[in-house]
Specification:
It is a single chain. The chain has 303 residues and is α+β, with helices and mostly antiparallel strands. Helices cover 36% and strands 12% of the residues. A hairpin with an 8-residue loop joins β1 and β2. α2 runs parallel beside α7 and α6 packs across α7. The N terminus and C terminus are likely disordered.
């Protein structure tokens, strides 16, 4: 029997945990009591059974509107696993070979020494493309043709395939354009995901929130005050903290373009995985119940 987690001494928390998962609820509550959490949700499935489904706090700190069971929130880099499903689906349908050169599907990508970069290297963060040098803005990011031209011109920071470096922001744009080239109908990654994965599986996950989803379901992302952000650097490994504070470092440059990213992530305006930011919005139970995409290093084949 599930344990009801909505208790009078902790009014922020709602939902349930199954027996044996009470510590998950306790740790979730600590986020609000000790870590200044504003609003959040957590869901866990074990062997296909939902054993944790918690939510609490507010979805908008400015209005005080409470976080609901179906509140949608940006899931940031969790989106990488979700977007990888579209590539795996294309692979299963014979539209994509992970060991083929990206330029085979997207000829313009071959510019600036990228002619031999494979799909496997690109999705495995080995293509040397974590940084986009050309300045990006809201208008450009919403014009997929212009964005594709910009990222196709980017020169790799290292010889592709020789080392790994986290493509924290750029990967979504490259995957989005690759899907547009592969899909027979020329659909965006967001549309392919919505029609071929989310809808059949009943997942409340969106790359670009549709008009049918009301603003009252969207959680607002609040920016961290600069002083608090600087204090947070002390929890990082020293070399990482130094890199984030150095505008010349690869890590800083990876996350500094577009400069408008913080403003964009606080709204529900992004549409499609190639847009800005290249992340999805999801309810917690939908993300946790999504199938795990196979690694490009295991030659997946999905039906």
């Amino acid at each position: 029997m599930a344990v009801d987690s909505s208790r009078t001494d902790e009014p922020l928390i709602d939902g349930f945990v199954a027996p044996g998962f009470e510590r998950v609820r306790a740790e979730f509550a600590r986020n609000f009591a000790e870590r200044r959490e504003l609003g959040a949700a957590c869901a866990v499935y074990r062997r296909g059974e939902k054993v944790v489904d918690l939510w609490g706090g507010v979805r908008d700190a400015r209005t005080g509107e409470p976080w609901a069971q179906d509140t949608l929130v940006l899931v940031y880099s969790t989106s990488k696993g979700l977007s990888a499903m579209t590539l795996a689906l294309a692979h299963s349908r014979g539209l994509l070979d992970y060991d083929e050169r990206v330029a085979t599907y997207w000829p313009e990508f071959a510019q600036a020494g990228k002619d031999r970069v494979t799909v496997r290297q690109l999705v495995g963060h080995e293509a040397g493309l974590p940084v986009i040098d050309e300045p990006l803005d809201v208008e450009l990011l919403q014009d997929f043709d212009r964005l594709a031209a910009v990222i196709a011109r980017q020169r790799p920071l290292w010889e592709p395939g020789t080392c790994h470096g986290y493509h924290g922001v750029s990967l979504g744009w490259y995957e989005g354009e690759l899907i547009r080239r592969l899909d027979p109908a020329g659909r965006t990654l967001g549309r392919v995901f919505a029609e071929e994965i989310a809808a059949p599986l009943g997942l409340d996950v969106h790359f670009g929130v549709p008009d049918s989803v009301g603003a009252e379901r969207i959680a607002r992302i609040e920016r961290t005050a600069p002083r608090r952000a600087l204090l947070g650097l002390r929890h990082l490994p020293p070399r990482m903290a130094l890199a984030l504070a150095d505008p010349r470092s690869v890590m800083f440059r990876t996350f500094a373009n577009p400069a408008c990213a913080a403003r964009l992530t606080s709204t529900a305006a992004s549409t499609g995985a190639s847009s800005s930011p290249p992340v999805g919005r999801s309810a917690a139970r939908a993300t946790s119940h999504a199938p795990t995409p196979p690694s490009p290093h295991t030659s997946p084949s999905w039906a």
